[in-house]
Amino acid sequence: MERLILFTFFYLVPLFDSMTGFLIKFHIMEEASIGSPSQLIKFFLWIMFFAGFCKKSAKRKVYPFVLILLSYALYESLIAILCDSSFYAFSYGLLTIFKVSYLWLAFLFFQNLIERRFLSINELLHLFKTNGLICVSLIFLTTALHINLPTYYVGTFGSKGLFPSGNGISLYCGALSFLTLIIAKKEGGSKNYFQALYMIVGSSMIGTKSSIIFLLVNFLYFCFVVIKHGKIFVFIFAVGFFVANFQLFEQLFDVIFYRFKNKGTVFTFIMSSRDSFVKDAFREYDTTGFLVLRIFTGLGAFLSFRKPHTNLGFDTLENDVFDIFFMYGLIGLLAYFGIILFALKKLVVKKQLEWLAFSSAIFVYSMIAGHSVFNQTSGVLLALCPLIAKNKPSFTSVLSSQNKKRSISLWKYYSYTC
Questions:
Q1: pTM surpassing 0.85?
Q2: What secondary structure, in 3-state letters, does 94-107 show?
Q3: Which of the residues in the chain have pLDDT under 50?
């Protein structure tokens, strides 16, 4: 059963996500439709994660998960009855609980496999790398066949393949490109470095802000960590190349540069104007009377910052910190920041600096730009970071001690690493 789950998660999910994009591309299905291939396979995985976790775990580990899940479901139903009187509000709340618990279950399931020594954290990271390579390959393939979805419907650059969420897949592939480069640095080998380059090019091809951010992160890591000699020279040369070809980069990332020039401040640009959305949300945020409780518990996923009995539909700020606060109050924020602090503290104590940089990039992006907690594609990264922190990856070079001798020929080294 475990092998079926791993195969489904790492090999089939990208195909089902692309199938959803294909149906949207050719107007067979509307965006955000219920019952899409993406939703179906992730619902199947939710059940399989839960069954696999329950099968091999002690009851004391299963009961808290079930209790919290049922409590939130009951809370959502009460909010729907008292504040909205809408079945849609209740169903949307359940869907949001499903998305968040999917990430939690993924963490519990993979951690259970590691504790049982079914697989190691190193093997799990290699599976994520393989999954990233599949995602990037699908983007390249669908773009070459001209059946891709553009990242933006304006501008000349940016392809998300057939993945429905451009923000989700760009954050996911960008982070995994960094993961692939870290593995290449730790293990060595021309094959690993080629895969890292392939991932970096593929994730940059999506053309979002997260693509550019992780392109920059990979560049800095390569210049100051991967390269052993001449770090400053390589850095200056690369910066000079960028400056000399600035117009080319401006044409490639035309939408991003246009938004940067018209957003006013760097902070507003990074947040994609969500700072103004947050200000508007607080203006509507009502805490009079019994609604003061929403500060601690929120008013559920559907109402969020809205007033009870509002005639307006669901709205999201696409910022994880404020969405969690409005939906689940301070209790939700404590859980969110608790996970982040747990992972970062573990990585600092264990002196896992590369993985600290990897996790920090994901957490900061989640806090500022969002697209993580409530996105099942990129949200899996929030489950991966605590797994890395808890289990301490320890990669070794692909070269054995005898292959490190000076007498080894270049041909033997090349044939071994490839």
A1: yes
A2: HHHHHHHHHHHHHH
A3: 400-418
